[in-house]
Inverse folding.
């Protein structure tokens, strides 16, 4: 039987790891190895990993110095000896059929990657609005179309919802020291494959936790993910212009949208002349006013915010913060 290696990066996940691992152990496809990569946990998670490994021979645990999720995944790639590779985040959990269904697709054809659909739930299990809408039926999405969907924020760039043939990672690894790392690596891989088979079942459950890496911030700091998404937008613009010219307008839209996201999250206290990153984003918006107005993929609301933020970013942010407070939502000031 073909073996699937499931890589789980783990850091201070003592309150949710058992549910995650139990959902992997319960897979109807039994020939798995489960690699728990403890990324320097300090809350007893490392000991929990060892206990879980003692309960199921398919589980292996590796402890390492803290280096981030990408670092842990890269260790998992080196340790894995399966024919296929899957990833699950320690916050999340999966339905029992997930790997059997995805393996069915990979063994039936010449495809290299298959994706199960996902949903989002809060910490108590309540369903949240879908971030990525599942298709009505199983279908093959060619690489260029998949990139287009990512640029329009309709695709799923997560590695956790996918199963890969092992050889696809030859010469590739997760970029360390970054957030939004899935997006960057997936773009690299998409250039080497024909596309991805997408399944309609929402078998992967993303648990949205208030204390997650990308949500934890204070008044005067915010997640570096908002810096990394801008850097990745620049990379994808270069890639599209070189290899996928038909997607040019989509890439321009993506660049503008990612910068809009940055401008709506950077604390007003950091919107100063000595913040080089902020100044570069502001200047980019001012240089691309025509693109903002003419781009067919931006909504009217997107365009209004982009034009206003290009003209008077600090004023717009203060007004925006006031509106959000009235609506009862948390914002950076």
């Amino acid at each position: 039987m073909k073996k699937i290696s499931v890589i789980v990066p783990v850091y201070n996940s003592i309150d949710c790891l058992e549910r995650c691992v139990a959902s992997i152990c319960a897979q109807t496809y039994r020939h798995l190895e489960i690699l728990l990569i403890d990324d320097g946990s300090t809350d007893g998670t490392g000991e929990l990993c060892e206990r879980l490994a003692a309960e199921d021979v398919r589980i292996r645990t590796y402890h390492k110095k803290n280096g981030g999720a990408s670092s842990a995944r890269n260790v998992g790639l080196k340790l894995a000896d399966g024919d296929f590779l899957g990833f699950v985040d320690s916050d999340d959990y999966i339905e029992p059929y997930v790997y059997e269904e995805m393996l069915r697709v990979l063994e039936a054809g010449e495809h290299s990657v298959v994706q199960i659909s996902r949903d989002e739930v809060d910490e108590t299990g309540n369903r949240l609005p879908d971030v990525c809408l599942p298709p009505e039926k199983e279908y093959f999405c060619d690489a260029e179309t998949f990139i287009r969907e990512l640029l329009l924020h309709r695709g799923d760039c997560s590695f956790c919802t996918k199963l890969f043939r092992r050889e696809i990672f030859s010469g590739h690894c997760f970029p360390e020291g970054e957030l939004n790392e899935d997006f960057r690596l997936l773009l690299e891989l998409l250039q080497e494959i024909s596309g991805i088979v997408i399944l309609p079942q929402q078998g992967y459950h993303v648990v949205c936790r208030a204390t997650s890496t990308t949500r934890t911030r204070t008044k005067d700091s915010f997640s570096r993910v908002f810096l990394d998404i801008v850097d990745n937008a620049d990379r994808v613009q270069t890639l599209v212009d070189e290899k996928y010219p038909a997607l040019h307008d989509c890439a321009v839209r993506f660049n503008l949208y990612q910068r809009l996201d940055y401008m709506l999250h950077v604390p007003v206290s950091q919107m100063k002349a000595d913040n080089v990153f902020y100044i570069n984003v502001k200047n980019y918006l001012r240089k691309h006013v025509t693109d903002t107005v003419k781009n067919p993929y931006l909504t009217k609301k997107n365009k209004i915010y982009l034009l206003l933020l290009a003209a008077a970013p600090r004023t717009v942010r203060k007004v925006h913060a006031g509106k959000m407070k009235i609506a009862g939502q948390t914002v950076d000031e």
Remarks:
- Residues 70 and 176 are 5 Å apart (CA to CA).
